[in-house]
């Protein structure tokens, strides 16, 4: 029996539409060649469906968890010499390059110091960065669960995960009070103690410390506006690229 494009052999299973379409545009192939090609086309269609299902599944993961997962995957694939870790401020403001070197921004909105402690070792093992920018603390200042002594210990633990890296420690930004209820929830006395701890750790370790500005430009009292992000980067460049 002759074989026409798109026609099935007797007893065969129906082909997906994509496979029938592909076979229809292979008129120069013999029946045997098309039979050999059919499993590959079916496999291709199945792979496409699997990719679509994976993309759908990823979109079902909560945003913060998805950003953390993406950061881990990028760290496995990247050769960037600079790693930036922190919270949503770092996520928004970290530059793509620092002192002429590519930056992998692995910051995750909502992260607290405990989150960085749990993620830092994995990021270091995948990337082994020459330089690490650490900018964390704002979320810890909202109804603090750690004493400042505990917070300082956890910060040192993060640093210990990067024994071969040059460290850049960014102080916690002040807030614009009155811009949002959340901004007013930050304990400013706690922030002052965090920044004092960061300066002390910088002095102990020889790390570069990026001082906090006196005032900030934000969209909601905490997260930097475009101008605020530029200021954040300018302070980082000024301290780190001397």
TrEMBL record:
GO terms for molecular function: phosphatidylcholine lysophospholipase activity. Keywords: Membrane, Transmembrane, Transmembrane helix. It comes from the Bacteria. This is SGNH hydrolase-type esterase domain-containing protein. PANTHER family: SGNH HYDROLASE-TYPE ESTERASE DOMAIN-CONTAINING PROTEIN, THIOESTERASE 1/PROTEASE 1/LYSOPHOSPHOLIPASE L1. The keyword Membrane applies. SUPFAM superfamilies: SGNH hydrolase. Gene3D superfamilies: SGNH hydrolase. Residues 84-229 form the SGNH hydrolase-type esterase domain. The keyword Transmembrane applies. The chain crosses the membrane at residues 40-58.
